[in-house]
Write a structure and sequence with these properties.
Number of strands of chain B: 8
Shape of chain A: elongated
Oligomer: heterodimer
CATH architecture of one domain in chain B: 2-Layer Sandwich
Strand content of chain A: 5-15%
Largest interface: A-B, 59 and 53 residues
Radius of gyration of chain B: 34 Å
Order of helices and strands of chain A: HEEEEHHHHHEHE
Low-confidence stretches of chain A: 210-217
Helix content of chain A: 25-40%
Radius of gyration of chain A: 24 Å
Number of helices of chain A: 7
Number of domains of chain A: 1
Distance between the termini of chain B: 79 Å
Shape of chain B: elongated
Structural class of chain A: alpha/beta
Largest sheet of chain B: 5 strands, mixed
Strand order of the largest sheet of chain A: 1-6-5-3-4
Largest sheet of chain A: 5 strands, mixed
Strand content of chain B: 15-25%
Chain lengths: ~220, ~210
């Protein structure tokens, strides 16, 4: 019997498996990073010293553009489905199941209720260039305000979903506005929110560069 | 290591048979894996950093409890900020014989106004330094509890002005502040500062509950 000779030379490791994992992860992160829904309107948020991060819970975002148009976006397709079901039957928007499903995955929108069907039926590219006129607000008569109605019903829908165990938390209210938005537009949103007893909400800001904490003498 | 066997074209030129070298077809994957992990790290970091910052805001309840109204505030403690056009802040103290002054949002502007007011109130009331130990046992100055700030953004102001004003509240640690609507009187006051602010007690209450 010949003797076993110990192998000489550098041991080589098969890297294939590791490469596979690495690129799988890479693909995953790239896709999730890009999966962010398209912004319906671009806003440049003002800076502040606040370092609190947006919580992970579902958010209901009210975006106010530079021109003062109001857009809404809510997280959670279950909630959105329940919301549009409710709104559709209440105001006879004439949406079919296909359109409701589209709404559930739509992202932000800023059209009056009557134009919602038309807006949903647009193709994604058409939607990107669509001139939204914003959600109508009526601060004098809260029952007539579409914004108040949307927010109220969305919170109810989220609450229903919470009871069914599909979501964990109630909505965190977020107001996102451009730094050049005139104050009256913000005032409308704040008044609407306090009118429907939402007294606690969050303003989105970006971190101030090189802010110094002073005032402590 | 990562060499690819090349067919040397002039192999037969010297009449000798040249054996093509036996080469390994194995490619070293190490740089590729390095690059892969580098990109993973990049994407992981950017996705978590993309979370926006928020600033919590609590508004007072619209329905004021008539039976049990909130306690009145001492006039001398009140500082009213009127956020005006072109990044200007008009401010006045109290309501009786109020004098309108204006400043900007810089650290030397609005912040000094607030800090001066704090010192002034402290002087008037001869307060002890509000110092309290926080959870970690470190003494914290609670100067921010001395004063009440009313923020009134005017129609001409921008959203940035409001956020800047709220930011100053956070920086100077003012604990009691509120956002209210500008009254007609105040609008007149800004236009004509010499005219003074002629609030009657009821009007002030109106303005406060608006």
């Amino acid at each position: 019997m010949p003797k076993h000779k110990p192998k000489r030379g550098a041991p080589s490791i098969d890297m294939t498996a590791m490469t596979d994992v690495a690129f799988l992860l890479l693909t995953f992160f790239m896709l999730t990073a890009k999966a962010k829904p398209q912004e319906t309107v671009v806003v440049d948020t003002p800076s502040s010293i606040s370092e609190t991060k947006l919580p992970d819970a579902g958010t209901l975002t009210i975006t106010v553009s530079k021109e003062g148009q109001i857009f809404l976006d809510m997280a959670g397709s279950h909630t959105r489905m329940s919301l549009i079901d409710d709104v559709n039957s209440r105001y006879n928007l004439g949406l079919d199941d296909q359109e409701k499903l589209k709404f559930a995955n739509l992202g932000g929108f800023g059209v009056p209720r009557k134009q919602l069907k038309k807006y949903i039926d647009l193709s994604p590219t058409e939607r990107a260039s669509y001139k939204s006129e914003g959600i109508p607000v009526d601060t004098a008569d809260i029952n007539n305000s579409e914004l108040a109605d949307w927010i109220h019903n969305a919170r109810l829908a989220q609450f229903r979903m919470k009871q069914e165990g599909k979501v964990k938390d109630e909505y965190v209210m977020v107001v996102k506005a451009d730094k050049d938005t005139p104050y009256p537009a913000i005032e409308k949103v704040i008044n609407t929110l306090t009118d429907i007893n939402v007294n606690k909400f969050n303003l989105i800001t970006s971190l101030e560069g090189g802010a110094k904490k002073e005032g402590e003498e | 290591m990562a060499e690819i066997a090349q067919d040397t074209g002039g192999g037969k030129q010297k009449g000798k048979k040249v054996r093509s070298k036996k080469m390994s077809t194995k490619i070293d994957f190490t740089p590729m894996v390095d690059l892969g992990f580098l990109l993973i790290t990049f994407f992981m970091l950017t996705t978590t950093l993309a979370k926006p910052q928020i600033m919590a805001l609590v508004m007072p309840d619209k329905d004021v409890d008539k039976e049990d109204p909130p306690p009145p505030v001492k006039e001398s403690k009140v500082l009213t900020l009127l956020l005006g056009a072109d990044d200007k802040v008009y401010w006045y103290e109290g309501i009786t014989d109020a004098k309108l002054d204006s400043t900007d949002y810089s650290a030397e502007g609005l912040r000094q106004v607030i800090l001066n007011k704090m010192d002034k109130v402290k002087g008037i009331f001869g307060m002890e330094d509000y110092k309290k130990k926080n959870k970690e046992g470190v003494e914290e100055d609670l100067k921010g509890s001395y004063i009440n700030v009313i923020i009134k953004p005017m129609r001409e102001s921008r959203y940035k002005n409001l956020v800047d004003a709220l930011d100053e509240m956070a920086i100077t640690k003012v604990r009691y502040y509120v956002i209210l609507n500008v009254s007609d009187l105040e609008r007149e006051f800004v236009k004509n500062p010499a005219g003074g602010l002629k609030f009657s007690a009821e009007e002030q209450l109106d303005a406060a509950t608006n």
